[in-house]
Amino acid sequence: MSQAFYRVWRPAQWDEVVGQDHVVQTLKNAIATDRVAHAYLFAGPKGTGKTTSARLLAKAVNCLDPDKTNQPCNVCENCLAVNQGRFMDLIEIDAASNTSVDDVRELRDKINFAPSQGKFKVYIVDEVHMLSTSAFNALLKTLEEPPSHVIFILCTTEIHKIPATVLSRCQRHEFRRIPVPTIIDKLTVLTKKEKIKIEPDALSLIARQATGSMRDAISLVDQLSSMTGKVTLKTAQEVLGTATSQSVVELVDAILSEESGTGLEIIHRALDSGTDPRQYARQVVDYLRNLLVVKLQAGQDLQLTPEEREKMNQQTAGIEINHLVAVVNAFSEASTDLKANWHPGLGLELALAASLYPPEPVIQVNDQVESAHQPPARAKPETQTSDTAAPSGIQGKNEETVVETIDTEPAFVPGTPLTLELAQSQWDRVKRNVGAKNRMAAALLNSGKLVQASGDTIVFNFTSELLRERIMEEKTNKLVNFMLNKVYGRDINMICTVGDQKVNLNSKQGKSETDLIEFARINLNGELLGDNLPSAGKDE
Questions:
Q1: Of the given ranges (66-80, 83-97, 362-376, 522-536), which has the lowest mean pLDDT?
Q2: pLDDT value of residue 540
Q3: How far lies 477's CA from each of 192, 267, 290, 444, in Å?
Q4: To 10 degrees, what angle do helices 245-256 and 346-355 make?
Q5: How far apart are CA 223 and CA 236, in angstroms?
Q6: What CA–CA distance (Å, rounded) separates 442 from 437?
Q7: How many CB atoms lie within 10 A of CB 282?
Q8: Rounded (5°) CA angle 285-210-17
């Protein structure tokens, strides 16, 4: 059985460890000057070389080469024994499987025995943060004053879980995520040695997907190389479940131009092609992060082609920094959203909805509220008082107040017929007032379209059933209706439709009856059974 690439290519010399020069140089100096500590703590993300460096240190301190600057030599008996996994004095412990105090007490009882083969007995405790509190306490005294022939090397990916009493007894080294160019260089050497045909763009994609983990990057190459004779970018995208970069660019364009339908279509097309929703969200965040760096005029170090840089310059010209930050936060939340487990597109759709309604600064000028992106309202704004206060239950813990001044003076003289044109003329006021109380509710309004208005009824259309369901939630619906009534100066029924659904607002029936029937049919899934229903108490 062949070994996995990450095991075959595990560094056997200090010079083969990449991306951790600050740690390697410190350990090499300690070995050369015979100042090796009794306890080390290696902390950092997965796949960055913690366990590998621990094994190299164990091999170096037991190397038989008289030249300490050449340790480990990889030719002496002890070095060969470590490489072949038969060195008795290198003990690796998986703390995830040995978490109890009894396991630590057993270890503590054995460390007093002298080394069998080498000068030092080295204990590597992997995932040490998994130890229980009592196990840590049992380890403290031994960790502080171990026998002279014992060296402890603790490895962890979650250093915040290590007790301060343990941290104070160890020499601590932080391992960093490995830069993408460094990973690409290593993979280029590996693929040439292993005679793997792979496109440079595919290597670049793999390096980015590894998120700083060399082990993950090598494992991805191993996986892809076993599938086809030549690894192309398209093959890598299909296997990794990633969308093309062009799809991400198009989605950002849709956000900047506030085209909700186009944005949803791009997301659904990406998901229908097999793209993982969280991975897609991460790609969007990665692109938006670069966009933010360019917007802050610090993008000189970004590895961009002239075409990519020109496109980003065009996009940043059409977006404010506060809006861009809000979009990054929305998609960053989608990248870790557990809702994707039961509905793959929900997190992305909510992120798109939130992104389409940027936080707008409201400025008080001559008693008028003016927005940076919208024309000023025609009516005089009033500070919210008890007469215009939102009904109880509107504000919740996840809702934030953007401004404290809202514009609620009625737009029309009572009795003025409501037409689509008149309704649309005040729609920005409705969205602005809703956004002053709940930015997500305003984002939902911004992701749909006002399509009909007649009498006291308006029809609002969404491209997604999920968005319609969100706006029909009790608190959101209550807030929207409250602002509709205030702005239009009358009780307004809002019917929400999806896609091609049509509403007949011109029935011969009375307006109020028509509105009630349509509202129940569309929003409550009601059904009109007939006019000749039996009266209460009458025999059927």
A1: 362-376
A2: 42
A3: 61, 26, 37, 11
A4: 40
A5: 10
A6: 9
A7: 20
A8: 135
Please state, for a pLDDT cut of 90, what percent of the chain lies above it: 21
Among 174, 203, 229, where does a domain finish?
A: 174
Residue whose entry in the numeric block shows the structure tokens 């006019």: 531
Check residue 390 and report its DSSP letter: P
Query: Does the CA dihedral 328-330-333-335 come out positive or negative?
Result: negative
Backbone φ and ψ of 289, nearest 5°? -60, -45
Residue in 251, 248, 271 with CA at minimum distance from that of residue 262: 251
Supply the pLDDT for residue 394: 46
Residues 6 or more apart whose Cβ sits within 8 Å of residue 27? 14, 53, 56, 57, 60, 173
CATH of the domain at 267: 1.20.272.10
Summarize pLDDT for 388-416 with one digit per residue, the tens. Answer: 455 544 444 344 434 445 665 666 666 67
d(CA 221, CA 186): 11
For position 464, which CATH number holds?
3.30.300.180
Q: What is the DSSP letter of 130?
A: G
Q: Under 8 Å CB-to-CB from 213, ≥6 apart: which residues?
A: 45, 46, 47, 48, 177, 178
CB of 169 within 8 A of CB of 37? no
Residue range 69-97, pLDDT digits in tens: 888 999 999 999 999 989 999 999 888 78
For the record, the structure tokens of 321 come out as: 């920094």
